[in-house]
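note to self — DONT lose this again. spent like an hour looking for the file last time. sequence + predicted structure for the chain T wanted, 187 res
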Amino acid sequence: LARILGNPARLVDAIEAEVGAVEDLDLAVRLHARAADAAERELGDLDRAVKHHRAVLAKDAANMSALVSLERIYASTEKYEDLAQVFLRKAEVVQEPFDVKEQFYQAGRIYEEILDRKDRAIAVYRRLHEYDAEDLTAVDKLIELYLGQQSWNELLALYEKKTGLVGDLDEKTRILLEPGTVLRLEV
């Protein structure tokens, strides 16, 4: 009735009034999703939409629709910490290795380049490295970040690991020489 009367605020209010009493999990998820959609698209109330998307995730942690919606909202409102957390959550939900790694890269990029939280970027790239120990991009990102923090022991371990990942002999030689060059420059 609220939709027919062109009153989306009443629609969201009505859903919110009823969703707390709903015991059926699937119905509650659908109601929260509907309230989130109406709040965002019809009311322009992003905070209210976020509240409902989070309620969906509280009931269904793998709800990709809610995660994608939160990604869109956080990106448009430049809430980068929240956006990075959505990417990390998506990394736990998506199945394809390429997609998992892409979510980690997105989160790491936000922490590294936008929020300037190198410690958080390192934590993300470490998780990615644990997920795929042969991902050279993750190793290179960690090397770059450890160089910036002058974390020599971690850096040397990564150079050693990297030499085991590359097949080209010239590339292995170059990698083996890098730690010496770096340490000589720092002394």
